[in-house]
Every structure is written in C-alpha cells, then in structure tokens.
Write a structure and sequence with these properties.
The protein has 334 residues and is α/β, with parallel strands linked by helices. It is built from eleven helices and twelve strands. The strands form three sheets. A six-stranded parallel beta sheet has the order 2-1-3-4-5-11, sandwiched between helices. A four-stranded parallel beta sheet has the order 7-6-8-9, sandwiched between helices. The N and C termini lie far apart (68 Å). The relative contact order is 0.12. The structure holds beta-D-glucopyranose. The site of beta-D-glucopyranose has 15 residues, from helix 2.
C-alpha cells in the first residue's frame, strides 16, 4: 500500500511538473536578445571572460528586464564566425558582442552588422583600423564610428608588454643571470595577427631597452596562445640554447603554463637559473607567482572588461550615447 501511495505521489508530482505553466512574466517585462560571438571557446582567458559576461547579464536582470543571451563558438574559423553573425542578424539580435576571429576581417563583419542597424560591442581583439594612435583610422571607419553604435572594449596591450619588461628589470640581477651584460631571452607569441601579441612582444623588450638594458633574442616563435604550443616551443628552445636562456617571455599565461612544464622537465628552476613571465593572471599562475615557480604575470582584467562590455551593450539597448573606446587597465603581478 505504502508503495502504491509513493508511486501515485511521484506521478502527481511529475504530471503537475509537465503541465505547470511557466511563471508568467510580470506585466511590461521586456526581454532583450543578445548575441555573443567568441573567437574560440577553447581559450583559458576567453572562457573566464565569456562566463563572466553570462553571469553579469544574469545579475542585472530585474522583474521587468530580461536578457536572453546566446553565446556561440567561432572555433577559430572566420568563415564559421561570419555565418554566426549572419544568423544573429536573421534572428534580429538587439545587440551583438563580438570577439573577432580575425581582426583583418573586421570591416566586412562590422559593415553587415551596421547595415542591419544592430549595435555592436567589439571585445578583446582590437581591429587594427581602430589602433589607438589614430594613424590607421581610415575614412570608412571614421564613418562607422560616427554611426555611434559601434565601440571597442579592451585593454591596451602596450601596457601589459611594458609590465612584463618591468618585472624583469626590477629583479635584483635584472634578468642577467650569467652576468654577461645582456638579457638573453626567448619570446613565445600569441596569434601574430592579434594586436595583443604584437604589442606584448614589442613592448616587453622596448621597456628593457628604453631602460638601458642590453638584450639578446635567442628565439621568437608563435604559440598561438595555446598551452601545448608554449610547452613544445619552450622545450625546443631549452634543448637548443640550454643555459643561455635567462628569460622566457610568453604573450599569455596559457603558454607560460606550458613553458613552466618544459622548464621543469629540462631540470631548470624558475627564480634560480631562469625567469618566466606571462600575461592574464590566471588563478593558477597567480598561485605560481606566490610560490615562486613563475616570476610574474600581468592581470588582464576579464571581470572589468566583461562588465564594461555588458554595461555598454545595455547603454546601447537603451539608446544612450556611448564612447567608441573603453580601456581597462592591466595590473602587474609579481
Ligand atoms: C589574452 C590571451 C587570449 C587572447 C584571445 C588575450 O588578451 O591574453 O590569453 O588567448 O586574448 O584573443
């Protein structure tokens, strides 16, 4: 008998569950459709960034305002991302947040979003034509910027590169472990089309040379932001140049994590016979900096950037005036 009552009870619960009507939205509630296109889900930093976009939108919902956020994975394929943007346009998104696969394709993508009259917030990968010094800002972009519904939210990668250089300059031996008068380094770069990779590569070294240090580049390779590539490239360089390598510069922390594994496997010790710096300040890397197994990193503030991107998207949804650029500061971690 008990068993029958139990089964009936379960059935009742299930039936009510199936037929229960969804909670009615309060009168006048508005749901905005937000399309978020990420260059690739398989990226440590962009995973933190995209999760924060989602949770921040959720936290801003009220009884009257809801955000229906669709996030898509560009799989590092520009053609795929271009289709995803076409779909967003067909679905009549109210605003699009876009992390481009290829900044060189920015104009084609921006033009179609603008033509569809959908506000656009570009994030993380600064289209080259928007370069901050203004030198490459051509008329076409000027036109788009005047449209006032397109903006870029990011961090100035020159700052992160300079901080990497400064971390080395401020060491007691200034990165010159063997005291031969020069800092001998290897550079592991992110996607070279990405301005973050270009600037970090350039400005980490510029900081040192501007400060009067002599440098020697033993090796400069592209690791495309990936941990496995960072490990492989660092292992190769250590095998080839051995103790000559004093500093390993990685354009991001994912590659630095790979490099750290290669350094360990080669029997070297960070802080003693080699230095290692990255960018992002992934939690794991912050722990390593504390433990001394990484020399330093630079906080790439995914919380600040994602919140700014969402705040601006909401301003656009409310037809508020916006700026065309929003910059979030990097912070040195050492
Ligand atoms: C981050 C990298 C990330 C890249 C993606 C950079 O700002 O530092 O970790 O892979 O953005 O575009």
């Amino acid at each position: 008998m008990k068993k029958i009552i139990f089964v009936l009870l379960i059935l009742a619960v299930a039936i009510t569950g199936v037929f229960a009507s969804p909670k009615p939205e309060s009168k006048g509630a508005k749901t905005y459709k937000v399309g978020v296109a990420i260059y690739q889900f398989d990226d440590n930093f962009m995973t933190l960034y995209r999760n924060e976009i989602l949770s921040y939108f959720k936290s801003l919902e009220t009884d009257n305002v809801k955000y229906n956020v669709t996030v898509v994975d560009g799989k590092n394929d520009m053609a795929e991302q271009s289709n995803q943007i076409d779909n967003f346009i067909t679905q009549k998104m109210d605003v699009i947040i876009l992390n481009l696969v290829q900044t060189s394709s920015a104009d084609a993508v921006i033009n179609k979003v603008v033509a569809a009259n959908i506000p656009l917030v570009l994030i993380n990968r600064e289209p080259l034509a928007y370069a901050k010094d203004g030198s490459t800002l051509d008329e076409q972009y000027e036109g788009i910027l005047k449209n006032a519904k397109v903006c870029y939210v990011g961090a100035d990668a020159r700052q992160s590169g300079s901080f990497q250089g400064r971390i080395i300059a401020e060491l007691p031996d200034h990165g010159d472990i063997n005291r031969d008068g020069k800092i001998s380094y290897i550079m592991i770069e992110g996607d070279p089309e990405n301005i973050d990779a270009q600037y970090r590569t350039q400005f980490s070294i510029k900081y040192l040379t501007d400060a009067g240090y002599k440098v020697e580049c033993l090796d400069d390779q592209v690791g495309n932001w990936a941990q496995s590539k960072g490990q492989e490239l660092c292992a190769n360089a250590l095998a080839k140049f051995g103790r000559q390598v004093e500093v390993v510069f990685c354009n991001n922390d994912a590659m630095a994590l790979g490099a750290a594994a290669a350094i360990k496997a080669a029997g070297r010790t960070v802080g003693k016979d080699i230095y290692l710096v990255g960018v992002d300040a992934l939690e794991e890397c912050q722990e390593m900096v504390k433990a001394g197994t990484m020399t330093g990193t630079v906080l790439n503030d995914h919380v600040g950037q994602s919140h700014k991107a969402v705040d601006v998207a909401i301003e656009l949804l409310n037809n508020k005036p916006i700026q065309n650029y929003y910059w979030v500061d990097y912070v040195m971690v050492k």
